[in-house]
Specification:
Number of helices of chain A: 19
Number of strands of chain A: 19
Oligomer: heterodimer
CATH architecture of the largest domain in chain B: 2-Layer Sandwich
Distance between the termini of chain B: 62 Å
Structural class of chain B: alpha+beta
Radius of gyration of chain A: 23 Å
Number of helices of chain B: 11
Strand order of the largest sheet of chain A: 7-6-15-16-17-14-18
Largest interface: A-B, 17 and 18 residues
CATH class of the largest domain in chain B: Alpha Beta
Distance between the termini of chain A: 35 Å
Strand content of chain B: 25-35%
Number of strands of chain B: 20
CATH topology of the largest domain in chain B: Gyrase A, domain 2
Helix content of chain A: 40-55%
């Protein structure tokens, strides 16, 4: 293929949701943008795929809980065919005896459910949530608007001050509590307050899902409030789009396609082109094609972008060392099942059927699963997050039939004996575990697919299956995560816009939005 | 009678045994049983150690950069006189030396250093600084281009990790060759004449910053006029095993005008030139505990070593900003005539404005001189300064506050 159109205003590497959001904002500002995607499909881990003919499910990520309404509005995504199938999903912690818990327990009925299990917990829960929200509010200004770069931007510093102000207004006692909280494990925090293992498991799940951490890992408590803050910034709701998660990138690509921009798939970037003056010039693809642009946004993780694409010769030794120490460990598997009918679970109401289910009977089980993963073993009692994509969007399965989407945290990337040999055993363990709660699952099961961490890596390009592009731990978030600052992208004109930069992982689009905003802001100030 | 040394050793062995028992399961904490324990500093002799020791009548040694070198050979005054009036022979083999080689060594150094390395021709030397992303100096040294794709950098401190990280991605090799080379400086007004006598007129006529290959008693010598020590100074580089030959040959041939000069005298000469020393007047950004003890080249009045026109290099953006607004100013101070004293805090209008980083009594000026670091604001605001001085009495000491003024560099001698 002979390329004629080689020069653009900006090039975005990677057509994951962050890359597409960044491109969309730039397109909206009237820029000529080229999006380069290595694989054949767009969306990264946000895609809808067929399990077997007529049965569709979100292949990778399956929920939107940190997806800000603000981006939807600003990009007018509804105009481009984006529609949420459901916005107000609840979390249901499944109990084998049908005595489930619904979270967040905002209403009286939900609290009453907790009370039937434990009087003490029902009293402690509102207090716990109030405190967590207070902590989360400290982080919110910095997540929403990005981090200030020291000594440069007075507006950004004002945001920093807003966060500090919130901290100053806290009571001394709360501040001390926060200090203890930040380095604690979620298990320590929950064990102090609650007694019901199911409730503790359900809350702990939010702290560890997607990370290489168990509920007893130090720092997991911080991850809980970080997620809470991200959720609050996004609007505090949970749901998924019509057509599965693939609906989101599709809408974004329609927006980009309508403007003077293009998305080029099967275009793996080999290296970034840097001019003699140390400014970005464009990119070179594996096939040798070179595209030119004064601005390049990379939605790949910082390490791959800087060490592999840019090359250490353009980095200061400090940056090289920092990037080589960048931790990104994935330990999650995805299973999609096609079902002949709705699985019957004792004690679930209609609202709860359409919710996000958790199988995490207690924190001990979760910790054991984590420890097994750490040692390269499969968990004996796996924990998981499940939902029925076809429940709110019936188009995803034939009438009366359903699809089930399962995320299994604490699945080792390298398993004893190798994944090829243990696929089936793993699937069987998962199905058996779900069948403990939905006894008719095995009868209704028609087909299934499993994506173990190595397959997630291969399919979505998320190295080691780490979808956050870098652990969301205390030492790799906020000021310790690369942002849009001058020092974070070592060459002028290069911006990082993936989950590996602040504010980090989850289907948020915030990294993409903030990067695009930074590009436009710098253009305004420097002409 | 019990031998006290034997007992001491016995005691040390006991302590070691107790420690090993207490922490038995941590391999490597106390090293292998045969090798030395890790994380303990070992001060090494230079390749000229025994020859320097023979010339050193005071037996006063100075440990610097992991090596010992004589502090004073005869007396501070005699050593100083050699450097100022005749010619001094100085052992500089304690320097850390790196070799950069490979087809991209130049590109690597160009990115690493703030000066324009590309402008360096074969057998040329330049004073070079390397900074971090934030523009703070990591280290400084003399960079020599020996041939195309081969450079030698002599410096103080350990920068191996920094250089190797920086060379990552370039076709360049960085080697620490410290100790394999001997370096002797020949400095003073007579130095030129001595170099002419020993190495020929070409060597004596070398321009500042130039170098050439010569030989003495069949031993190849690289004669470089670096000006690192003082204006009229030559560095003689040889293999470590040839260094004693050069040392003794020079002393034997020019016994009347050439004398060995120790670290203390060199330091005084350095002070008179007003040059800050790495690890003494400021710390490298990699090893400093406090940011306030690090400097940018502009704060050291070494702005001419930063070339913004040469293209990208590490710290360029930060240095551009630092050039406009230096936070601190490193200045040379000259006190009113007085006896030798130790200078400490500097005051402007009664308020503390900074501190002295190194000081000494200059025999030429007959007064105390110092390098100090002042807040940039205080420097621009005030004209008169005072300094706290501690004088040694016969017994004990007393303090005075002396008026000082900021002196032009160099404090002694011609242009620097």
């Amino acid at each position: 293929m002979i390329e004629r159109d080689l020069s653009y205003d900006a090039i975005v590497i990677g057509a994951g949701h962050n890359g597409l959001v960044a491109a969309a904002y730039l397109v909206q500002a009237g820029k000529r943008v080229l999006v380069l995607e290595a694989s054949g499909e767009i969306g990264g881990a946000a895609v809808t795929a067929e399990i077997s003919p007529d049965y569709m499910s979100s292949a990778g990520a399956h929920l939107l809980y940190t997806w800000p309404k603000r981006i939807e509005k600003e990009l007018k995504l509804a105009k481009h065919g984006f529609e949420m199938a459901v916005r107000d999903m609840v979390t249901v912690a499944l109990d084998k005896d049908g005595n489930h818990i619904v979270l967040p327990a905002g209403g009286k009925a939900d609290l009453a459910r907790i009370r039937t299990r434990s009087q003490r917990d029902a009293e402690a829960y509102p207090y716990f949530m109030k405190r967590m929200q207070a902590y989360a509010r400290l982080l919110e200004p910095l997540i929403e608007k990005g981090l200030p770069e020291p000594g440069t931007d007075s507006k950004a510093l004002a945001r920093m001050r807003a966060a500090l102000c919130r901290f100053e207004r806290m009571k001394e006692e709360d501040r001390q509590e926060l200090g203890r909280f930040l380095v604690s494990s979620i298990a320590q925090v929950l064990d102090r307050l609650f007694e019901d293992p199911l409730l503790k498991g359900a809350i702990a799940m939010d702290a560890v899902l997607g990370s290489h951490m168990g509920p007893k890992s130090p720092g997991s408590a911080y991850r809980y409030i970080y997620r809470l803050a991200q959720q609050n910034v996004a609007g505090g709701q949970m749901g998924y789009p019509a057509g599965g998660l693939g609906g989101l990138p599709q809408a974004l690509s329609r927006l980009i396609g309508e403007a003077d921009a293009r998305i080029r798939t099967h275009s793996s970037v080999k290296r970034l082109l840097v001019s003699g003056a140390g400014e970005i010039n464009g990119v070179a693809l594996e096939d040798g094609t070179e595209f030119l642009a004064p601005v390049v946004l990379s939605s790949l993780d910082p390490r791959t972008t800087c060490l592999d694409l840019l090359g250490t010769r353009h980095l200061a030794p400090q940056a090289t060392r920092r990037l080589k120490g960048w931790q990104k460990r994935g330990s999650i598997a995805k299973i999609n099942l096609a079902l002949e009918g709705l699985p019957i679970i004792d004690g679930l109401t209609e609202r709860e059927y359409g919710g996000r289910w958790l199988i995490a009977p207690d924190m001990q089980v979760m910790e054991r699963a984590f420890v097994s993963a750490k040692r390269g073993k499969l968990a004996v009692e796996p924990v998981m997050e499940l939902l029925l994509p076809s429940y709110h969007d019936p188009h995803l399965a034939p009438p009366g039939h359903h699809t089930m989407s399962i995320l299994v945290p604490h699945t080792p990337f390298e398993v004893e004996g190798g994944w090829a040999k243990r696929h089936e055993e793993f699937t069987k363990r998962i199905v058996d575990t779900v069948a403990d709660y939905a006894p008719d699952l095995k009868i209704k099961l028609i087909a299934g697919e499993i994506l173990a961490p190595p397959e997630l890596e291969q399919r979505f390009g998320a190295e080691s299956g780490a979808w956050d592009q870098g652990d969301m731990s205390l030492d790799q978030t906020m000021f310790f995560r690369p942002g849009m600052g001058v020092h974070d992208a070592p060459v002028k004109g290069l911006y990082l816009c993936g989950a590996g930069v602040h504010p980090g992982g989850g289907i948020t689009g915030e990294s993409g939005r903030l990067a695009a905003m930074e590009v436009l802001a710098r253009e305004r100030t420097h002409g | 009678m019990v031998d006290p040394f034997a007992r001491k050793e016995e005691k040390e062995n006991k302590v070691q045994a107790v420690l090993e028992k207490a922490v038995p399961a941590v391999p490597g904490l106390f090293g292998s049983p045969d090798g030395p324990p890790p994380y303990t500093a070992q001060v090494l002799p230079t390749c000229l150690h025994s020859f320097a020791a023979a010339a050193c009548r005071t037996n006063a040694w100075r440990a610097w950069n992991g090596f010992t070198t004589p502090d004073i050979y005869v007396s501070l005054a005699a050593d100083y006189e050699a450097l100022r009036m005749g010619a001094g022979l100085v052992d500089l083999s304690w320097q850390t030396v790196y070799r950069f080689s490979g087809s991209e060594a130049e590109a690597c150094l160009q990115r690493l250093m703030t000066c324009d390395v590309k402008a360096l021709a074969d057998h040329e030397t330049i004073r070079a600084f390397w900074c971090g992303e934030d523009g703070r100096i990591v280290g400084e040294g003399m960079l020599m281009r020996l041939a195309r794709g081969e450079y030698r950098l002599s410096t103080a401190g350990d920068h191996a990790d920094w250089f190797m990280s920086a060379a990552d991605g370039f076709n360049a090799l960085v080697e620490d060759v410290t100790g394999t080379l001997g370096c002797v400086a020949l400095a003073g007004p007579e130095a030129g004449a001595l170099v002419r006598a020993s190495f020929g007129p070409d060597a004596a006529a070398l321009e500042e910053g130039a170098a050439l290959w010569s030989a003495l008693h069949e031993a190849p010598v690289y004669v470089a006029r670096t000006g690192a020590l003082q204006e009229e100074s030559f560095e003689l580089w040889t293999d470590a095993e040839d260094a004693p030959v050069i040392w003794t040959a020079l002393l034997r041939a020019h016994g009347t005008s050439l004398h060995a000069a120790g670290f203390a005298a060199c330091d005084l000469v350095r002070l008179e030139r007003g040059r800050a020393r790495w690890g003494m007047d400021y710390m490298g950004a990699e090893c400093a505990l406090e940011r306030s003890s690090t400097r940018t080249p502009f704060e050291l009045a070494a702005g001419m070593s930063v070339d913004f026109e040469k293209g990208p290099f590490i710290g360029r953006e930060a240095l551009l900003a630092a050039r406009e607004k230096p936070e601190l100013a490193a200045v040379a101070l000259e006190a009113e005539q007085s006896g030798p004293a130790r200078l400490t805090d500097v005051y402007a209008g009664g308020k503390r404005a900074g501190g002295v980083t190194s000081c000494g009594w200059s025999p030429v000026l007959c007064t105390n001189i110092a390098l100090a670091v002042l807040e940039a604001e205080a420097l621009s605001a005030s004209g008169s300064f005072e300094v706290d001085a501690e004088f040694e009495a016969e017994i004990g000491s007393f303090r005075r506050r002396l008026p000082v003024h900021i002196a032009a560099r160099p404090l002694v001698g011609g242009t620097d």
